[in-house]
Design a protein that fits this description.
Aspartate Aminotransferase, domain 2, 371 residues, 16% strand, Aspartate Aminotransferase, domain 1, four-stranded antiparallel sheet, 12 helices, 2 domains, alpha/beta
């Protein structure tokens, strides 16, 4: 049989470590699943009805590549109210992951450098590598605050982009206005784009949320519907820019024409209603879950308090977090080794997007592994 000669770029990425652990759940007997970043509530019924209404009324064809006007206009109004962007432009994407791919494809040439705090969301590294770019990791251990000075020192003539993710996956850290303004100053001095991934922006527990877009005009703002409305399978997000980055959004739109074509049309219609839906009860529940997790683990385990999202990045009680994770999985609790999200192997990630009963059961199992 003739061998299959795959593109060289496929060797630059690995299969998702998160998905590998998630797949184990189907093979185990009633495990505690702390592995996947997926809300444990369902899409609210009112929003399901909006999607069903759109489907039944024939709203099932391609939309314009950039998205339906009703949704774009609604988002522009929201951005004007929240972050005082008066003349934003918007591209509706197939999830924030789709927006990331479009942005990286539009920006990164082989050899270009992308600066990101470590730990980081796993997709950043692999997409940059896929396109022949180079990730420049800036250590944010042990407290996971935004490492502005480290970012400043990492900028070179090859730097193309800085990535900010707040609230952060995997640490749950929420960056302060002061930190973001400091980053804006550094980026502005070098006329760099900052990509702000704000998919968890509504999950903020200990104070008012600040967007990078409030601090810096040259921000590529990425938001989505998967987490706050539990629409993970609907694949819906958006990218937004001010006029200074309009050429970037135009190129992302052009690439979408030849890749995703458009975001799912009936779900775009439902998203118009989602932007008016009050998710504060869900956020309040997740704050309680966060607090429960902290009370259960903060004695035997060391962890920085997550201020948002639904993750905790916990220090392994033994050298080599991967080995501890193997023991945890053998004890029927699924967690993700930290080296999936980091150049270090010292921590593991917990997603507390589950019931309070499961949080307690999982923490009991983790304590038993520790002892």
């Amino acid at each position: 049989m003739k061998p299959i000669y795959l593109a060289e770029r496929t060797s630059r990425i690995d299969a998702s470590g998160i998905r590998k652990v998630f797949a184990l759940a189907s093979e185990m007997d009633n495990p505690v699943n702390f592995s996947i970043g997926q809300p444990d509530f369902d899409v609210p019924d009112a929003l399901k009805r909006e999607a069903i209404k759109a489907i039944e009324s024939g709203f099932n064809r391609y939309s314009q590549t950039a998205g339906i006007e009703a949704l774009k206009t609604k988002i522009q109004g929201k951005l004007q109210h929240e972050i005082q962007w008066d003349d934003s432009d918007v591209l509706i994407t197939s999830g924030v992951s789709g927006a990331l791919l479009l942005a990286f494809m539009a920006l990164i040439n082989p050899g270009d450098e992308v600066i990101l705090p470590d730990p980081y969301f796993v997709i950043y590294k692999h997409l940059v590598n896929l396109l022949g770019g180079k990730c420049v990791y800036v250590d944010s251990y042990p407290d996971f605050r935004l490492p502005v000075e480290g970012i400043r020192q990492s900028i070179t003539e090859k730097t193309k982009l800085i990535i900010a993710n707040s609230p952060c996956n995997p640490t749950g850290m929420v960056y302060s206005r002061q930190e973001l303004e400091a980053l804006a100053k550094v980026a502005g001095e070098h006329d760099l784009i900052v990509m702000s991934d704000e998919i968890y922006g509504q999950f903020c527990y200990d104070g008012e949320y600040t967007s990078m877009a409030q601090c810096y005009d040259k921000t590529l703002l990425l938001r989505g519907f998967s987490k706050a409305y539990a629409m993970t399978g609907w694949r819906l997000g958006y990218a937004a820019v001010q006029p200074c980055l309009q050429p970037l959004l135009e190129e992302m739109t052009k690439i979408q024409q030849y890749t995703f074509v458009c975001a799912p049309t009936p779900f775009q219609s439902a998203a118009v209603a989602a932007l008016d839906y009050d998710v504060s009860p869900f956020v309040a529940q997740y704050k309680q879950k966060r607090d429960l997790l902290l009370s259960e683990l903060s004695g035997p385990f060391e962890l920085a308090t997550p201020g948002g999202a639904f993750y905790a990045f916990v220090k392994s009680p033994q050298a080599g977090a991967t080995e501890f994770v193997k023991k945890a999985i053998a004890s029927n609790v699924l967690v993700i080794p930290g080296n999936v999200f980091s150049e270090q192997d010292t921590h593991f990630r917990i997603s507390y997007a589950t019931t309070e009963a499961e949080i307690k059961r999982g923490c009991d199992l983790l304590r038993s592994v520790f002892t």
